[in-house]
Amino acid sequence: xxxxxxxxxxxxxxxxxxxxxxxxxxxxxxxxxxxxxxxxxxxxxxxxxxxxxxxxxxxxxxxxxxxxxxxxxxxxxxxxxxxxxxxxxxxxxxxxxxxxxxxxxxxxxxxxxxxxxxxxxxxxxxxxxxxxxxxxxxxxxxxxxxxxxx
Length: 150
Prior knowledge:
Structural class: alpha+beta
């Protein structure tokens, strides 16, 4: 299935936010950033970023690729990443964490959102994100809105 991965190819900054950043290794699968997406703490720069599932770093530049992974495996990868980051606990005792059952729902919503966004663009397309809108940098008129639901 198609997924989004980090890339260092920015294609310049003709539109959108003036600065790109990428702290994620090339090719790492990316996902929505928990606190910024769910807790509403995103500022203008953060709302355009996705995070690496392994490194937990952020990037504003991502590419559509085909990977041998199922939606369920992507959900599990995201669930583990959220757990390692401390956002999923056995029993939530914090304003910024959730219990395991809710965490699985969040991971499922994130996995579906990433796969829906990737499916709407051709393979190897370079994308940027502005809150809930993903836009092609190769063809700026191509964009789609993806809402995270769980």
